[in-house]
Structure formats: structure tokens, C-alpha cells
Design brief:
alpha+beta, Double-stranded beta-helix, four-stranded antiparallel beta sheet, globular
Length: 264
């Protein structure tokens, strides 16, 4: 039997007006739902408002949606890579804020001519891969304040934050606005290996999109050509969600030692 694609495996199959009925349970258990039929900006906004309280920010438009398209050379400025046409590395949305938005919706309005695939990576799968293959790296990435995301007004954090009840959340960025402590810098290749091992690629057609728990799933984008346009919404869920994702008990390892370099 053929394996379902990531989109089909998480697709909400009910008619569009009824899709929100299954969103809460899907996000609570898996942190991801895929959506289709959102063919206009009005439809994207209406759906977003049903599942979240929208949050405005620097790049959002007056309706609090953000139009994601290539803005040319301005996208080369730090923090604006998502508004270009180049590769966008795996990251948490708004990682430099003290409390990043819990939900992110991204819908394709116009596909690229070539490229532009979405790349999604489950933080729970990254955590499990590191626990199995690189437990010392996993412990290092959970040390408090070993990462700093943003410019001078950014936020100190760590890749994994552990929560009561054997749960964890992930926060990451990999561009020029990320700095890592020497306690974790030497483990970054293992983190990238884990991401590469478990990431999944999505090709979105017009009207298709995904809704993710931004504290669990990382997202990225392949480089593209053409006039690709997506619409993005960020916000707070209109339904209860548990903190983070469940994980197995970490292996007992020695406390990680510094691996060289200067502190961020």
C-alpha cells in the first residue's frame, strides 16, 4: 500500500466550512493540519479568524495577514529572508520574540514557476532522533539561555525547553540573527543531521496550506523562480492546547562540556 504524503496524511477532509471542527484535536495530538480550498484572501482570513486570534506584526498587512512574496534586494536584510526567493532555513516563526505565536497558517495563493517547496520538520521527531543518536547533544540543547535569537532587541532562549509532564517545545533559527553558546555550538552539526533525517517536503498548489503548532513544528522553504505568493497568519488558538509535545525520558548522560568558541 503506498505511503500517504504528508499533506494527505494530515488533510482535513470535511467541507471547508466544517474543517475547524477537527482542527483542535489534530493540533493537540499531532501539531499539524493541512487545508485546501482557500482560494481567495477573504477565505484565508475567514478560516484564520475561526481558528485563532490574529496577531499583527511588522510585516503584516492591514487585515493582519502577511503577503509572502519576493521583495527583491530588500530581502537580503537580516530577518527578511522569508520575503525573498532564496532558500529559507528551518526555523520557528518569530523566534526572537519572548513568546512566539502558537499557531501559524500558510496558504499558497500562487505557486512558483519552479521550486518553492515547503519543508516541515516535527520537533518531536528531532528530539527523538537526538535522544537515540546524540543524547549529549540533546542535553546541551536543553540548557537554558544557550541561544540568542534576534538583534539587540532579541530574546535569549534554548533549542529545547522542557516542561512538566515530560513535555518539551522547540525554538530555532539558523540565520545571521542566531547566536549560540560554546556549550552547544559544537553540537550544531548533529542538530542539522537530525533535521535532515526527519524533515518532509510539501508542494502546495493554489488554495492549499498548512496550520502548525509553532512550538512543535519547524518550517523552511526551497529557493524558487517566478511570482510565488503565499498568505500567512499568526496567532493564538481559540481552543485549549497542551504546552509543547510529549517525549520519552532522555538518556542519562554526563553534563555537556564547552566545545570552544566565544559566548553569544
Amino acid at each position: 500500500m503506498p505511503t500517504l504524503s504528508l499533506f494527505d496524511a494530515h488533510r482535513m477532509t470535511r467541507p471547508l466550512p466544517e474543517q475547524t471542527r477537527g482542527i483542535a484535536s489534530r493540533l493537540q495530538s499531532q501539531g499539524l493540519a493541512t487545508i485546501e480550498g482557500l482560494t481567495t484572501r477573504t477565505a484565508v482570513l475567514a478560516f484564520a479568524q475561526r481558528v485563532m486570534r490574529l496577531a499583527a506584526h511588522r510585516d503584516s498587512d492591514s487585515d493582519e495577514l502577511t503577503t509572502i512574496r519576493d521583495i527583491g534586494h530588500r530581502s537580503l536584510q537580516p530577518g527578511l529572508g522569508g520575503l525573498g526567493n532564496g532558500e529559507l532555513l528551518t526555523h520557528t516563526e518569530r523566534s526572537s520574540e519572548p513568546s512566539p505565536p502558537r499557531l501559524m497558517l500558510l496558504v499558497c495563493h500562487r505557486p512558483a514557476t519552479t521550486g518553492g517547496d515547503v519543508i516541515l520538520t516535527d520537533g518531536q521527531a528531532i528530539h527523538g532522533y537526538l535522544a537515540k543518536h546524540f543524547p549529549a547533544a540533546l542535553e546541551a540543547f536543553a540548557l537554558p539561555n544557550t541561544a540568542f535569537y534576534g538583534d539587540g532587541g532579541g530574546h535569549p532562549s534554548q533549542v529545547f525547553t522542557r516542561h512538566p509532564g515530560q513535555r518539551a517545545s522547540i525554538r530555532l533559527r539558523q540565520d545571521s540573527l542566531a547566536a549560540f553558546s560554546p556549550l552547544v555550538r559544537g553540537y550544531l552539526p548533529q542538530l542539522r543531521q537530525a533535521i535532515d533525517a526527519v524533515q518532509v517536503r510539501l508542494t502546495l498548489e493554489a488554495g492549499q496550506g498548512y496550520l502548525i503548532d509553532n512550538s512543535r513544528w519547524l518550517h523552511a522553504r526551497a529557493a524558487f523562480t517566478g511570482n510565488r505568493v503565499c498568505l500567512r497568519a499568526l496567532g493564538t488558538p481559540r481552543f485549549p492546547m497542551p504546552t509543547g509535545f510529549p517525549h520519552a525520558a532522555p538518556n542519562q548522560v554526563d553534563a555537556p562540556a564547552a566545545v570552544g568558541g566565544d559566548a553569544p
